[in-house]
Design brief:
alpha/beta, binds S-adenosyl-L-homocysteine
Amino acid sequence: MSIDTRLLGIGMTSQRTRERLITRLREKGIADPRVLEVMREVPRHLFVDEALATRAYEDISLPIGNAQTISAPFTVARMTEIVAQVQPRKVLEVGTGSGYQTAVLARLVPEVYSVERIAPLLERARRLLAELKVRNVRFRLADGTLGWAEHGPFDAILAAAAPAEIPDSLRQQLADGGVLVIPVGQGRQQRLITVRRRGQEFERAELDPVTFVPMLTGTRR
Ligand code: SAH
């Protein structure tokens, strides 16, 4: 089915389920009106398999193939809110996955750089964002633990996969005053961490427990 047909197909009922999701995000503490607006606008059902589209506006993560998942809307909103606070011009995302978080960021940030290590996921996200006429994103098939030095420093870096320890290249590619938001830890549950750069100082804060796929090294065709 074409994107246009699928966009129409979602119809009025899902308009209501979408609105319900926004209410839920607000209840769970998402306060930034820009973030709530973007979460309302970006059609999450297009980023999951058609068989799962009816569940796309529930606050849950869903499989996207290649043993990966699209993050739950609350998690996307929470991380986006942290990034939006610094009013970034340039953001690096590690772990494109479905491209949903990428599309959310692209609405709020002039330049988005997104790195994914699994080729078929990257290609699908690239195609979908092109169809949605999102033009301010550059993609790269690469190991995101290394960041994307040519385009750094970044005002914010958002990682959607969890390393055991924060990769130093990500810290180093932060601009002064920039923020890194990343799940850290091994095992099923990790901790959402923010790192703020002040000159050569890095301020670390621990936030909510979260569940992400592991950040792996190397790339896969
Ligand atoms: N925000 C995405 C989350 C996808 S899951 C979404 O909502 O769809 C996390 C993604 O990180 C997976 O696609 C996984 O392949 C990718 N990933 C894991 N380690 C990585 C690395 N070192 N570099 C780049 N991408 C990585």
